Amino acid sequence: MLPYNLYLFFVFVAIDVPSLKCGDVVHLSASESADKLEAVPSLSTAAVSSPVPPVDTVFSFSLLSSFPEDLEVSDYCSDLLHIFGQRYVAYVNCLVPAARPVKVCQSCYSTYGSVVEIYKNISSDQMGPGNVTCRDSLLRSDRLMLVYQLYSNLESLWEDSNCAQCVTGHLESLTNDTLYFMSTLNQTLTCFEKYQQGNHTELCKNCKSAYGTLNVLYSQMEQNSTLCIDIEDAMNMTRRLWSKNFNCSFPREENVPVIAVSSFMLFLPIIFYLSSFLHSEQKKRKLIHPRRAKSNTSLMNIQDKLS
Amino acid sequence: MANITKKVSWSSRGDDSALTGEGTPLLNGTEIPKPSRQDPIRGRPKEIPHNEKLLSLKYESLDYDNIENQLFLEEERRMSHMGFRCLEISRWVICGLIGILTGLIACFIDIMVEKLAGYKYQVIKENIEKFTEVGGLSISLILWAVLNCAFVLVGGVMVAFFEPIAAGSGIPQIKCYLNGVKIPRVVRLKTLVVKVIGVICSVAGGLAVGKEGPMIHSGAVVAAGVSQGRSTSLKRDFKMFEYFRRDTEKRDFVSAGAAAGVSAAFGAPVGGVLFSLEEGASFWNQMLTWRIFFASMISTFTLNFFLSIYHGKPGDLSNPGLINFGRFESDSVAYYYYEIPLFMCMGALGGLLGALFNSLNYWLTIFRIRYVHRPCLQVIEALLVAAVTAAVSFTMIYFSNDCQPLGPEHNEEYPLQLFCADGEYNAMATAFFNTPERSVRSLFHNQPGSYNPLTLGLFTLTYFFLACWTYGLAVSAGVFIPSLLIGAAWGRLCGILLASFTPTSPIWADPGKYALIGAAAQLGGIVRMTLSLTVIMVEATGNVTYGLPIMLVLMIAKIVGDYFQEGLYDIHIKLQSVPFLHWEAPATSHWLTAREVMSSPVTCFNRIEKVGTIVDVLSNTSTNHNGFPVVVQVLDSDEPAKLCGLILRSQLIVLLKHKVFVELARSRLSQRKLQLKDFRDAYPRFPPIQSIHVSQDERECMMDLTEFMNPTPYTVPQDTSLPRVFKLFRALGLRHLVVADDVNRVIGLVTRKDLARYHLGKHGLEELQLAQT
């Protein structure tokens, strides 16, 4: 919560100054703003060439809302923005088909890497060509902060999916652990496939070792915390196959001994209490009669007096 | 003890030495009193089975009343202004020490329980996993039972053979102490040690018990020990805090210790103060409250601080108490006004179940007192309970079909899979295969849907009977957590059922919220505490919003429960035959006057009394009195003696020990004058009269009691009504109240047992009988 607040605070500080400037600009004469019209087409072409649907219908309105050059986004930055858009789309396009069964880490780590790279470029404070940084203009010029929001959504997705555990540091390839797990998983699944047709007891018997190694491997990885959503999901599905579809869980077979032992234990206290009731000497209390001034305070007398 | 020439009904055997309490002289039974001539019918010994309508001779009053004799006045005169200020400072220092030590003990208990229980559950879990695969689960069951029994054996043997007073939660005993009853051995170091080890063993042994109740007792023992600056068990005297060696001061510190104990147990400093206030409120002042609050705060802070170090996060103060209810913060656990009637119904249910619990426990306790009184039998009983607890838990888990997927955050400490599908765990095992505290927390906080109703219903039923059976065993264990657990289980069940009735808006019936209310209702129904319990619950949940519903629930639980049966602690106090004085005298007792209440005739001493007489009176087994009015005979007249003071047995014993005889004082002028310090040094365990040797010559000497007696004892006229006497007793913490006639002659003496024997039963006012226990 706190960092977010702080961030907002900075944003307010940042946008405070430009807004003052804008106020000045608005007071310019209308003729000047008309002169600016020439500058607009170049901008609009850039907008049209982007993958977003053409904005012809609103084009006339956007004409009115153009600003003097020094406030506009530089070409360099708009290029960056453009690339960011493309990569973003590529990543999302990759993610959606990988949603079920979950393969978001395996299939999309490289596209994610490219998104990260371009965002790094946008948010770096190094000067690009023409001594401009795009960080302020692209990321924090307005309340919406669209680019930042889009990116942070992706980032939180990435964090929730724990993909970093399965991918090497610089998002180059899957880790060896992951690959090994995948191959073990494949072995198990092929085994399942092989015996799927016939009796499931056969399957339970024959695939037990493969499934067992997979389980052991999984719990090892769980302890080392090298799990990502892909592996977790794959394991869940395998377990469900094994337990629910093939019914290979352990059967409840020992009802008789368990009931026998526990009823024996339940029986012991009954014997104990009975024997102590019968054999133990009952504890008696010796009454003591205190000396009273008059012997009229016994219970009988109380009763009499009350009635 | 009453100052009465009692006609003791002796058994035919002369070797009865059952009457040995602390401070009570050992009776060697050499003198068999002559059967009373006046009343031959009563001379025969009468024996009855133990029941609740008895008062035991074992218990005595504490001397809360300040004895303003000449020694006291002298000492006060000698003491400088600075001295008083130092005393005040040392009171604060003691309270701080009490807090720190209580917090450390709580920390120790917590860590030990966690370690031992963790080890046990780990071993059993591995074993169960192994045998699920290859078969032979009954061996796991036996292993579980054996491990439980091993822990309980240690705890049970310690309690039953070394210190029986450490059994149970200790709250009834502390309640009695604060009420002004001296329970033998209740605040000794040995008791503390047995209590701490006992509670660790019984919780680790898997019994249906909690470690919170015993903390209150532990805090009280710490307070009593620290404030005295010495330990008689260790035979060490640190020569500190000597001024506080008397009952009045000690009681104040004990109430601080009890508060610190509550505070460490529940992370509820205010609740602790209010607990002490509720239980010992007849002696109270604002400054004391503030000091006690200080002790409570220090205690919870100490626990918090050391636990944070133990958990490897020093400075992260998030464990204020032994039980951590977790936080109820999210929006889904807010309540709406239309839920309050539902909560109140749950309160009524809690009251009913609490009354049922108490009634069952009452019968069980009577049976135990009558038949299971030998220590070895008590240990065997505890072992059986441990084994059955394991067997029942195992069977429940074994036959449960409630499988739940493992959550991402792993709330379950020891998830058992058993016959569930891979990646799922047995929901019954989270309730049974865990320490009770953790089970409570998971009932409060687990996601809706982590238990199915059948599991909860079965769990409530079994745990109810297990907890009821367990309370009163010879192990040290509290009843708070089991009550909370039972209540949380049926409360959660209520929440689930409500949610299923109204499928459209599942939010308002969050099961965790109903678990909390159920827990409060059940606890209130069993222990019947009001103010302090509300505050404890509110503080433990860390959510003031729940104040109102919890208060209402506790109120209704108490009203409903009181209709059927008393609170659990009151039942146990009664069954122990303790002369406990309640807030008020029983209603409809105004017609009883002091004349009827008092004991009479009274054994008095003259102001200058022969040593032989004193020794004879003190060593008379049949008149085991503690306070003796001192009378003065007007010379050369036939007028009866008039009251001029009151002297205690303990004082007389110290005087005899130091041989403060008139003749000796004359012969040995250089003899040191007796000071108040000499009396304090003998406190609290004054030697029995038999250990003091008085030669035949010395028996002829005289003793001047003027300097030592309390010259201004409280007296009442004989027509004072019982409620008036009662109020005086309760408010001033008296031990002896002399009944005098219009010319100041002693005609009787009222003691605690004379007052406590009246109580309002089913058929109006009833009288309890005195008995030897």
TrEMBL record, chain A:
Any stretches that span the bilayer, and where are they?
Answer: 256-278
Q: Which residues form the signal peptide?
A: 1-22
Looking at the keywords, is ATP-binding present?
A: no
Alphabetized Pfam families for the sequence: OSTMP1 (PF09777)
InterPro entries attached to this UniProt entry: Osteopetrosis-assoc_TM_1
Keywords for this entry? Membrane, Signal, Transmembrane, Transmembrane helix
Q: Which GO terms describe its cellular component?
A: cytosol
Q: What is this protein called?
A: Osteoclastogenesis associated transmembrane protein 1
TrEMBL record, chain B:
Q: Write out the biased-composition intervals (Basic and acidic residues).
A: 34-47
Location of region: Disordered: 1-47
Gene Ontology terms for molecular function: chloride channel activity; chloride:proton antiporter activity
Keywords from UniProt, A to Z, are: CBS domain, Chloride, Ion transport, Membrane, Repeat, Transmembrane, Transmembrane helix, Transport
UniProt membrane topology term: Multi-pass membrane protein
Main location (coarse class): membrane
Q: Which family does it belong to?
A: Belongs to the chloride channel (TC 2.A.49) family.
| Descriptive protein name | Chloride channel protein
Q: Which organism is it from?
A: Haplochromis burtoni
